[in-house]
Amino acid sequence: MNLKISALDYVQEVKTGNISAEDFVAKTLERIKNVDDALHAFLSVNEDAITQAREIDKKVKSGKKVGDCFGMPISIKDNICIKDSKTTCASKMLENFVAPYDATVITKLKQQDAIFIGKVNMDEFAMGLTTEFSAFGPSKNPWNTDYVPGGSSGGSAVSVSAFECIASLGSDTGGSVRNPASFCSTVGYKPTYGLISRFGLISYANSIEQIGPLTRTVKDSAFMLNMISGIDPNDNTTIDNKNEDYLSGIDSGIEGKKIGIIKEMMGDGIDPAVLTATKDAISKLESLGAICEEISLDMVKYSVAAYYTITATEAGSNLARYDNLRYGYDFSLEGYEFNSYISKARRNFGPEVTRRIILGGFVPSAGHAGKYFLKALKVKSKLTKEINEAFKKFDLLLSPTVPILPFKLGEKIDDPISLFLVDINTVTANLTGKPAISIPFANSNGLPIGIQLMANSYQDKHLLQAAHALEQTVSLPEVSL
Amino acid sequence: MTMIGLEIHCQLTNLNSKLFCSCKANYRGLEINENICPICMGLPGSLPRLNQEAVKKATIIAMALNCSTPEKIAFFRKNYFYPDSPKNFQITQLNIYGDTSVGGTGSVMVGDKKINITRIQLEEDPGRLIYEGSSSKNQITLVDYNRAGTPLVEIVTEPDFETPKEVRDFLNILSDILANLGVADPSLEGAMRADANVSIKGGKKVEIKNIGSFHDLEKAVHFEITRQESLHSREIEIIQETRHWDDKRKITVSSRSKEEELDYRYFLEGDIPWVTIDPEIKTKLNSEMPESISSKKERYVSKYNITAQVADVLSSDKYYSDLFEESHTESNAKEVANIITTDLMGLVDTREKREASKFTSTHLKELADSIQSGRISRNSSKNALHEILKTGKNLATVIEELDLGNVSDESELSGIISQVISEESQAVEQAKSNPQTINYLVGKVMQKTKGKADPSLTLDLLKKQIGI
Fold first, then answer.
1. Hey, what domains does chain B have and what are their CATH numbers?
2. Domain, as residue range, for A49
3. What is the pLDDT of residues A171-206, one digit of tens each?
4. Which residues in chain B have Cβ-Cβ distances shorter than 8 Å to A364?
5. In chain A, which residues touch B (CB < 8 A)?
6. Interface contact B46-A199, CB threshold 8 A
7. C-alpha distances in angstroms, A213 versus A176, A216, B278?
8. Model confidence over A63-77: pLDDT tens digits?
9. Are B47 and A103 in contact (CB under 8 A)?
10. Strand pairing partners for A399?
């Protein structure tokens, strides 16, 4: 049995009876057992997966209506709630937190007969871009286990690229889906803000983050989007997409489309291999009939600073609820006065989370807000204006997803500032709410390179069409592990 | 000069659900921590779901208090750690980045004095702390989250009050207005709370918090003025601070100085998009707004010729005005008003009595009509009212069971009158010479009938028999 098939192929195979969901799920579990000690993508594995797959096979055989997933095994980032199962955010703070409800995306996938094969690793509370900040140990890049898989949805990208599942859901606050997708050679897609409900996604920086799929192909991402997008009464920020079918017309091509190449995302510090790959992508797109032209976006150089200021502020507030009073870990509060209790109880956060909470207490505080937080909001609004202007001229904007190649574990963990710069190409889509996707495009000495396309708000369908066209121009190796 | 300003918090108790989830807005009478869900407990992954009805009700309050209402409103997070706050931030509103709270500046008349409103904001109530244990050593703090997330409207006034009495009068008027709007029941325990800030002779502002009732608020303000005057007379500096009202000792106690003030790190609540309240919605809300107290009062006086004093009582209490509206007709309006203000008021002057009473507008209408038609006397109607409040039985049953009906049978009444005439010969003679004194005889007939004789019929028959 081939575990490497795409989601759409899997569905076809089970539908036609060529394979059974049970066999596929059993093989997948076996694969996890064999490779995950080395990769550490999973934080927990679904013990009932086989039983669930058997139920789906029964439905298929008896001719009953089966949901669109046909028992497809999907991994879920451990900051998305699944009822009655642990949702840890890879934090000691929530080590034993069992979610009492399903996230909206989980409800929707359950209705489509998906099987959640397990919860996957991440940087604690999604803060980081290497998965090294997981309280339960880092994940490894399946292309070379000495290297980081990217983050914060590292477990998602690893599990998809190493064939431990067919697709995964991650979350993207500043590139957390696209960055590991690029480092692990999978598709990673962050939709327009509001397209997918965040209900049940544990907030880090709620005003800019989205749940997004990591898949083998662009078509699979469109397929996932069809199932999980749409307005949700439980999330007031969702938008009505009128049940758009993102798969239909995905072969439309990009002839005549205008693509802007963002100058500021290909400048200082870019790895030569990444630059070469990006130039190659541009010429491939041109050969498909796209018109590519350089564009300069002035505000991009301030975007990372603005991003960290805004996310720290929101994180400081969103993570304030973890005071261990209503749920959490074992810790007796006897003998403490409230303030000393709070500071003691919150020492279970890891170093990066603590750093951002401290920053989040400072940048919006009285006397400092004008210099930091309010200025960051100004950058955000100027950047949005600039991007909106750009989309009057261009249909799409292109850049490498990450300016550098994957690096070794431990290489940058003690240098948070240099890590921050890895975000330079991805944060713009979050700050402006635009959809963006990372497409696997090249491989340099066994390390993957991804290309990012960005589109205007609600142009997700056109973005996926373009991404699909670019994807068709390359043939890439698979993980050999 | 004494300057007093108020911050009034009023729960929108008439709503079905909390501000951001579907738990009950009125949590009273429920078991501790029964009225909670993942949203109002701020569980990881939960998101606020704005109660649109709360926005409407808050806007109605803003309009009723003559406040400006912005086209778009926004919510902000107020960040602070406290065990009654499940998220450790409160979702509230703020006007420092432009007017985005449900209400801007407005005003309320208290007698001839105009009290200016600074702003009105919609926010969530926190949970409630319960302290147990006898001494501070073994004291434990328990938290009841039933109240957490209850929709709360905060009304902030300018420091326009000069005396505790003005504060009290304003709060009474405000409470009547809110009840009349049908948005809240301010008489519910804890539904309406107020903090005050007080300064004298242009000195520093002192904020008083933790005041349990309006009665205590008046006392607290009074205490604080006296305290500040005493400091001032001894030339001791009054510092800017927050003081708590100590309910047991009836004094204010310093809780934090300006230097210790919390930094709330306000910022926009991204989980709730801006809400547009366009002119059409405002027009619709305006048209649905209940008639104001002052307009009711005016109508009662002009249309039914009810005295201004009675009309004032009737219109300002929603319970009475609702009863009046539901039971009066063109012809019985004055009688209905009369029953409410002379008989009923003393019997249902508290919320508990109103809740316990079985009295309805149908009863009131029957009573008024029966008095007017002479079926029951004014005197007997009081007894009937008592019985109805207790039992809820209809008037006809009560009249029959308690034998309260007027004696309006001519032959029966004639018999009684003959008896009185024979017993009171002297008075009869007097009446013949001075018809004014016939009332004495009417009274005697009333005595014999236990007040049930139809007064006008009695008079007619008496005159006839005496021959005057």
1. 2-281 (no CATH), 291-402 (no CATH), 410-466 (1.10.10.410)
2. 7-254+436-471
3. 999 999 999 999 999 999 999 999 999 999 999 999
4. 265-267
5. 79-81, 87, 89, 94, 97, 99-101, 103, 198-203, 206-208, 233-237, 313-314, 316-317, 320-321, 323, 325-327, 338-339, 342, 361, 364-366, 369, 373
6. yes
7. 11, 10, 38
8. 999 999 999 999 999
9. no
10. A452
